[in-house]
Amino acid sequence: MSISNNKPKSKQDLKTTASSATDNAKSARDLSAVENDFVVESDSANSSAQESVAAITEQTTSDELSFVHDAVLLQETVAAVLGVKSLPKQTDDAGQNSLQMSGIYVDATFGRGGHSRLLLSQLADDATLIVFDKDPTAISVAHELANSDSRVKVVHDSFATLTDSLAAMGITQVDGLMADLGISSPQIDDGSRGFSFMRDGAVDMRMDTSRGQSVAEWLEKVDDETLANVLYEFGEERHSRRIARAIKQMDSYESTLELAEVIKVAHPNWQRGKHPATQSFQAMRIFINNELGDVDDFLEQSIPILKSGGQLAVISFHSLEDRRIKQFLQRHSKGQYPEDENLPMPPKRPRYFSKPKRVGPSKAEISQNPRSRSAWLRLATRTDTDYVADVQP
Ligand SMILES: C[S@@+](CC[C@H](N)C(=O)[O-])C[C@H]1O[C@@H](n2cnc3c(N)ncnc32)[C@H](O)[C@@H]1O
Q1: 77: Cβ–Cβ under 8 A, 6 or more apart, which residues?
Q2: Alpha helix positions (H), the chain
Q3: Using an 8 Å Cβ cutoff, are 39 and 176 in contact?
């Protein structure tokens, strides 16, 4: 775990960033959406889709590519984390219209800081924002922000270390927690990271390139059956066995495009508008980054970490994650009996959360940022029920 507490430097005017986060979102090109909209009909369809990506890439400088991410459900998430219905229309350079909220907040997935910047624009000078990310590039952007704003503290680690990382800063409870799960557009756009089946690169797929094994290293060692199970469990890939066999017959795992091609050839059921490797790539990425395990750990830790009245806001992009968040909030907001047959009269589960809610993107957001179309934001408010560690999960 590496935590940096940044020296208080002159605080730049982050209050302008409410509008700049939105502007960023407007100007950004969502290459990942192009990737998802890939049409597989023939090789010519394949190459024309690649050409359209190349054309967009050419219009975008490499700097923009590495720093652009369209923040999804931006206003809704930040308002939710602050416990307000909506944000003031526009925060200007002098901080007019800012809510000036005090307290301690966490952005568990900094990315390029879209949500963090808008949140900062609504925070008072004495507030603190702790940002997490596994990705070294995201962390270097977070450090830049922290260097100009002493309210920001940066943690280069998984949000699954929430409790320990906050404890290392002397923090035991916070007022709001937000997470925008999954990978960012810059991670997909940079072929060398290995997330893309349309840009060539090493078969890596680690969010944190400073530790852990890459997908290529794992593929060298894994047996067919385990691989098939991963493709099925984390990608809901119905043809997992056939695809796993084909992958294991490859001589090496050096190129994402080669891997995608092998999956494409092995896949018996191509769907219009979807690359046949989509689910397999998703599965390997989720597995290698322990994405679902991290989400479970984070959610459980949110109970003791959130103050009474504190807000939880989590955005997810696929049903495997959304289902977990939904079930977690159901479990902890209904005061039901646990389903444990061994206990004749188990105590009811405590109601740790109230007002669980699901929010989707507006039509306007979807048309501006197609990647948002699969996003769901789940919100809930921490009740005043004290946390009891050993109650049935
Ligand atoms: C969808 S992006 C977040 C974008 C961000 N909200 C923004 O506006 O720029 C997800 C980010 O979460 C990071 N991430 C995913 N899982 C993580 C985890 N378990 N711990 C820390 N960071 C994680 C990824 O590296 C990525 O940068």
Answers
A1: 115, 178, 180, 313, 315, 377
A2: 17-27, 31-36, 43-59, 62-67, 74-82, 114-121, 136-148, 162-168, 185-189, 215-221, 224-235, 240-248, 256-266, 278-288, 291-305, 319-331, 363-368
A3: no
Q: Is 112 in the pocket of ligand 1 (CB under 6 A)?
A: yes
Where do we find the tokens 């039509």?
Answer: 363
Domain boundaries, the chain: 12-25+69-185+305-382, 209-288
> Which residue CA neighbors atom 12 of ligand 1 most closely?
109
Each residue of 93-146: pLDDT tens digit? 776 889 999 999 999 999 999 999 999 999 999 999 999 999 999 999 999 999
Domain 209-288, second-level architecture: Orthogonal Bundle (1.10)
The whole-number average pLDDT for the span 293-297 is 98
For residue 341, report the distance from its CA to the centre of ligand 1, in Å: 39
Strand order in the sheet with 306-316: 2-4, 152-156, 128-133, 104-107, 174-180, 306-316, 376-382, 353-359
pTM: 0.85
DSSP letter for each residue of 310-330: EEEEEEESSHHHHHHHHHHHH
Q: How confident is the model over 181-194, as pLDDT tens digits? A: 999 999 999 999 99
Averaged pLDDT for residues 39-63: 30
Report domain 12-25+69-185+305-382's class: alpha beta
For ligand 1, say whether the CB of 115 is within 6 Å of any of its atoms. yes
pLDDT at residue 44, rounded to an integer: 30
Pocket test for ligand 1, best of 30, 76, 109 (most atoms within 8 A of CB): 109
